[in-house]
Amino acid sequence: MTKLDVFAEQFAIAGTFTISRGSKTVAEVVQVTLTQDGHVGQGECVPYARYGESVVQTVAAIEALAPSIPNGLDRAGLQNALPHGAAHNAMDCAFWELEAKLAGVSVAELAGVSVPESIVTAYTISLGTPEVMAAAARAARDYPLLKLKLGGAGDRERLAAVREAVPQTRLVVDANEARVPGDLAANLLACREVGIELVEQPLPAGDDAALADVEHLVPICADESAHGLATLGTLVGRYDAVNVKLDKTGGLTEALDLMRAAGAKNLKIMVGCMVATSLSMAPAALLAGQADWCDLDGALLLAADRPGGFRFGDGVMRAGEIWGR
After folding, report:
1. What is the pTM (predicted TM-score) of this model?
2. Where in the sequence numbering do the catalytic residues fall?
């Protein structure tokens, strides 16, 4: 018989994490464990208010599955048992790890994917004044890829200051829906002028039709507009890439399907994350071998990670022992 446990936890962020929607100093996560025959499968998710989720609602949704698990609920049955979001993600990843352990293989082997020994991940520079962002970028100059959080007014100055601080570093930017259609073309031009290689979610998800009518001077990546397979059709013609996050797809199962389907539509792939521990990063890292960009620095932004988490150094991340091995 499989036993379900669910926990709400908080992890302090190293400093403050700031995007266009606000700032936070704590990462709130929900952890799931499934135990069977001495084997434990784990999953972690980040309930996100932007998508109408909360920690309380997520814990309740997972606990509501408890009576179904002794009756045979498994990963296949889960796909229709919960909406595809944070709660679904934690359960799906826990089922993956439990299945792998019961079969005596790694999750990568079970999923049929190859994971690089080391992964170049973007390191996030929080939204701030041009001077503050430039200083943060300079301090992170050993990372080969930086992701700049932008927020509207003053972005041109932020871009110029960061590029001056790190003239050789690869840069991507994320506006988190802060732009408006009227200034989109000018901002894409500003990004091209400083060598930005990807612009993530410049317009609000409900107002992104204008992306089909503007020249993509820099490739544009969908984040808030992209969830699971059901949203993929709306991205074609508007975006050049899709940010695959397990908390949006509802776990590894749909993320794998979404990556294959997006590739078939000639969309490039970013594998992304929320601010969370290595327990969230590890399932997403299974997608790294098929991704064009990886943004899996969530655990690196914490004051302290879970034991056995990813090891970071030389601008890359290397697997620990926390999940799936």
Report:
1. 0.94
2. 149, 245
